[in-house]
Specification:
It is a single chain. With 467 residues, the chain is mostly helical. It has a two-stranded antiparallel ribbon. Helix 5 packs antiparallel against helix 6, helix 11 packs across helix 17 and helix 12 runs antiparallel to helix 13.
């Protein structure tokens, strides 16, 4: 067809397409990106995470139009920041709904990300050749935690203020540089106006750019190596004469339409929570955060939002009396690696770690090790591709006891999350310590237990049942 016979919209598109790779990007990432044909409901959560990111950015833009990051007191004796949130809730048309979209969206983000990561865990999506995809995902998780933490202070309520006070003070436990680092983060000797402005800048500008860039890198890396599937079979190994995977189907329209089912279900639940239970019994929005921040009045129980509580429980569980059992546990786990592995480098690293941990537990206090344990619980996820020594990827073809290992890990994570919300007590402290060991034992023992047992034969091609 000659160019003269084309309509104006098509001419405009062709002009743009010659100068910007619209068609090429569409083909590479949608119509000619072949995904395994056996995706199940676990594969909803990647697209849902992208949806929630868009919801958070858009709702955040509208909130910033009215929010003022100012900790000074107004004529009513309430901080300007807290008053601006009240103004959004009471005076701005549909402001309360936008605020609840943003606060509920934060929890929804972590729910879908945790489920997305768990799917990667059970189906081995972190295994070769997708190590970099997993690492980018873990970096997104870290950036998301930072974004949530910086945003948590902005309402300038009681829990916001004191939660930030507790978390920032943890940095002072780092030897030598800790006290100066805590002052640098706060911008002052106490949490105040400088802290609020810094956190606002990071929450609104810096971290969102980082998250968007990491999401782009995550997707590009994924589309370069291809998606994993519940069988853990590489569909690129079996292609037809045209180079198309025999067990692959175009992402668009098949999975773009498939994902709309997940989007529809998610939005119905999301809208119901926003409309009828935005505080979710105090888990999504705590009652103390509806009280203006008061530096002279500490809440009876300070706890972060639910999505931080598993790691907060580990922090609280690390007491002085727990350090010796912790060192013995770490030494046993590393000692097992030394005995079982034939890799001389792994033996050297494990031996060095045992010595360093012994010196550290002797010379450094429990507060420091609590910060290390809390941070290590996230950092250890980066090493999962190399900790897992199983000959198969998917849990479908692993021994039965692997199911129990994953189940115990999930129970440990949920129990630690629950205990982090609750007020501390001696019995809860002991339970937290036990499940902290279970959490780390799952990963540190993975090089041993992941390779044990009778594995089922993996099929040459993916198994598929219409649903």
């Amino acid at each position: 067809m000659s160019n003269n016979n084309l309509g104006t919209p098509q001419k405009v598109f062709n002009w743009i397409d010659k100068r910007f790779p619209v068609s090429a990007a569409y083909k590479a990432h949608l119509s000619e990106y072949y995904a395994p044909k056996n995706f199940n409901f676990w594969y909803f959560f990647g697209s849902l995470a992208l949806l929630v990111l868009v919801i958070q950015i858009v709702s955040g833009i509208f909130l910033v139009m009215h929010y003022k990051p100012d900790a000074s007191l107004n004529s009513s004796g309430i901080s300007v920041a807290f008053a601006s949130v009240e103004y959004i809730m009471r005076e701005v048309p549909f402001g309360y709904y936008i605020r609840y979209i943003h606060s509920t969206g934060a929890s929804a983000f972590f729910i879908v990300v945790y489920l997305h990561m768990f799917r990667g865990l059970i189906y081995g999506s972190y295994r070769a050749p997708r190590e970099l995809v997993w690492i980018f995902g873990c970096m997104i998780f870290l950036a998301l935690m930072a974004e949530a933490f910086f945003g948590y202070l902005l309402p300038w309520g009681q829990m916001s203020f004191w939660g930030a006070q507790v978390i920032v003070n943890l940095f002072s436990a780092i030897p030598i540089i800790g006290p100066d680092l805590a002052i640098l983060i706060r911008g002052d000797f106490v949490v105040g106006d400088a802290t609020l402005n810094r956190f606002f800048s990071f929450h609104v500008i810096a971290i969102p750019f980082v998250i968007v860039a990491l999401v782009a890198a995550h997707i590009i890396a994924l589309h370069e190596v291809g998606s994993n599937n519940p069988d853990g079979v590489e569909i690129k190994d079996k292609k037809d004469e045209n180079g198309i995977p025999l067990d692959g189907i175009p992402f668009h329209p098949y999975y773009s339409v498939h994902d709309m089912l997940g989007v529809g279900g998610f939005l119905m639940i999301f809208a119901a929570i926003i409309s009828f239970a935005p505080e979710m019994g105090g888990y999504f929005l705590e009652a103390n955060n509806f009280i203006p921040a008061d530096p002279l009045k500490t809440p009876s129980h300070i706890a972060p939002v639910w999505y931080f509580t598993p790691f907060y429980s580990m922090l609280r569980a690390t007491t002085a009396e727990f350090l010796l059992p912790l060192w013995i546990f770490a030494a046993l786990m590393l000692g097992t690696v030394i005995i079982k592995t034939k890799n001389q480098l792994a033996k050297l690293i494990s031996s060095s770690l045992i010595l360093l941990l012994a010196l550290g537990f002797y010379f450094l206090d429990a507060k420091f090790w609590g910060v290390v344990i809390m941070g290590g619980a996230v950092i250890i996820l980066f090493f999962l591709p190399w900790l897992d020594q199983s000959p198969v990827k998917s849990i479908r073809y692993r021994p039965k006891f692997h199911y129990y290992m994953y189940g115990l890990f999930v129970i440990a994570f949920l129990v630690l999350g629950y205990l982090g919300v609750e007020a501390p007590s001696p019995i809860k402290e002991r339970i937290s310590q036990f499940f902290t060991l279970v959490y780390f034992g799952f990963f540190l023992g993975m090089p041993i237990w992941s390779s044990k047992g009778k594995f089922k034969p993996v099929p040459d091609r993916v198994t598929f049942e219409a649903h």
